[in-house]
Amino acid sequence: MFRAALKSLLGRKVRLLMSTFAIVIGVAFVVGTLVFSDTLSRSFTALMASTVGDVVVRPENTDAAAEPTTRTVDAALVDELEGIDGAARVDGNVTGFGVYVVGKDGKLIGGNGPPSIGGNWTDAPAGHDLAGMEIIGGRAPEKKGEILLDSSTAGEGGYVIGQDVNLVTATDQGTLTAELVGIVGFPEGGSLNGATFTGFDTRSAQDLFLKGKDAYTDIWVTAEPGTSQEDLAASVADALPDGVEAVTGDEAADEAATVIQEAVGFLTTFLLIFAGISLVVGAFLIVNTFSILVAQRSRELALLRALGASKKQVTRSVLLEALVLGLLGSTIGLGLGVLLAIGIRSLFAQFGLDLAGQPLIMAPRTIIAAYAVGVVVTMSAAWFPARRTTRIAPVQAMRDDIAMPESSLRRRLLVGVVMILAGGAALAAGLAESVPKPLYFVGGGILAILLGVASASPVISHPLLAAASWLYARLFGSVGALAGQNSLRNPRRTTATSSALMIGLSLACTMAIVGDSAKASVDQTIEENFVGDYVVSSLVGQSFSTQVGRQMADLPGVDSVWAQRFFAAGFDGEAVSAASRSTLRDGLGVDLVEGDLAGLVDGTVLLDETYAAEEGLSVGDRATVELADGEQQLEVVGIFAENPIVFGSIVTTPTTLVRAGSPDADNFLIVDTDDRPGMQDALDAVVEDSPIVTVKDQQGFAAEQREPIDQMVLMIFALLGLALLIAVLGIVNTLALSIIERTREVGLLRAIGLSRPQLRRMVTLESVVISVLGAVLGVVLGIGFGIALMYSLREEGLEVISVPSGQLAVFLAVSVVIGVLAALLPARRAARLDVLRAIGSE
């Protein structure tokens, strides 16, 4: 039986090729995601380890996940700590974010994602004497007006040593120009993962980031040989004043790396979701392929039973073929996954996350996952066709026509209805957020509904297939009637093939509705709440110099400039916004439902009414607020109504943020003018030398807010494209196998006068039925999923539900094109069959 199974498999290599491809795509997506995420995680872990000293001295309550802080330690500590036992050297560091390099072409380098870092340059070694950045060309900056750049930034900007570099900062100095005197890099391999670094001499860095204060943002203490980080940290801690702490370099690196791991974990989950979608769609293709192959081998399997093979042996022979197919697909998918990881790495490099200097990480769990996923999915998909082989009686080998026993459509309908109801309940629970981890319930509910519809589709799609058969007969005569009858002859096969396309299109339609509704909600919110005449903000979402607002306020025709800034404590912290009382009242139109705006002074806060209700806070209470110097208890002096122009649920004064250690910089300006001609040009002139800052009117601001939504939807469409590709292959595979199964029938049709063009048309019409059926079911389900998801997000400000009818119509039209294209090869094969040989085939 083992030899028979292998010979059977080798005899049908072409038939199984496209099924193998489905597994290859799914496994490759899993492998590519795991390799990329492991590479990303390892690179950040190595980077964090090489950017800390043996012991780091810093202000207490420093949060690695928070935005950069202006909190400092006294420079005198450097001399005091040099006498500590076990300390080889002590170096002070000044570090800040928001130093943007402008290339020779005038374009901003980096800034979108990874930070743009600036600071003083020291040659202090990293912890454990690890290799960090070193000067690989030129020298260190020695005075004001001299800088060094990392090699990647210098190369991208087109700068060489000796040339002047244009810089934009978020400090009071705004823009500046400095001579490039040195290039730094990682001689032993590594990179800043897309971040940029600009190095200054210590005095210039203190002037730029600390307003001339003789202090450091942190201090590195390097251990002498034989002294552990823990022992050195304990000795250093004994010599520190209140408000300053000492942590080992390992602790500081782990703390920073953990924050990155959270972001990497989200990205990994996001990509693995699409890998799962590809595998589910691929499973439909595999089930269909094995069902057809088992049906075609009915006589062969019956003969094996007649020759003494048991039911279990026949089933095992089919499963053995699936095992070989799964192993082959997993092996190819493993190799393709590495190429996919390289592609993902290149894609994210376009968004600023450059991992080109990092080797790909192929962890043992990735290899195990590749074979586990490929083999399990293939074996599971082949299990149902394999079970049906046990119902073939040995005596059937003597018959001319053998039909595989079919399961009851009534049972499939019942199973499908149960899954649809269960999926609907899970989806409703997830959308209502009445369960822990609602996204799992939403995803599980959508999957259950899709599988339920796929199970019940032979029954629920019968009216559509019958209507298509009637329409074909009217439009294409006898050829159309044959195509329609072929679709109705085996509804299980037709709907199983269309279900793969249905899943991909339903998710695409869902995302189309979510994206269109989100953009419509943004437009409505801006139209209803846009104040002033112009909005000034950063292209990269970071802060910018307060000089911009001051210069704009001095322009003729500018009536007022309202400034807002905010602080975000890590990935999951509550954002804290800050603005003056006049800005809140006149510029942002804040409406207090409790309290008095006059009470907003330094050290107090206003709360959004929704947030206040969730936290059970009212006027007079003290709210726990996470700021740059840690948690603070601030008095609540007012509750304000929902306002989409106010960023964050907590509002305080700008001085409160600055005193806590936030940079003295703005994030958002609203400019009110007298509408005189040329106002836009005058405002643009203020930020001409600062490519990170843009000036927009209402239409421009709305377009800017829609852009990231479009990018996200396009990226999701691209990922769903793999699932749709597998679905198209499923149609091609089903038609090709169907032609082989119906070889005698095709020969008879040709013998009684059906021409080759008519035969090709018949196969094409069958393909169009399959694709249109999948598209109709997918669009209907996608509309339902999209509306449900948007309805659940109405409390998040996405109040408009917009169904892009034009885009959905395009999906339906494309499905017809898919059907025509998928039929090209099977139709050509059918038309080339020799008539006499076809009639004589078994």
UniProtKB/TrEMBL annotation:
The keyword Iron-sulfur does not apply. Keywords: Cell membrane, Membrane, Transmembrane, Transmembrane helix. GO terms for cellular component: plasma membrane. It is found in: Cell membrane. Pfam families: FtsX, MacB_PCD. Residues 273-394, 718-834 form the ABC3 transporter permease C-terminal domain. Residues 17-238, 495-684 form the MacB-like periplasmic core domain. It comes from the Bacteria. It is a multi-pass membrane protein. The chain crosses the membrane at residues 16-36, 270-295, 318-342, 362-384, 413-432, 438-457, 712-740, 768-793, 805-827. GO terms for molecular function: transmembrane transporter activity. Coiled coil: none annotated. Belongs to the ABC-4 integral membrane protein family. This is ABC transporter permease. It comes from Nocardioides currus.
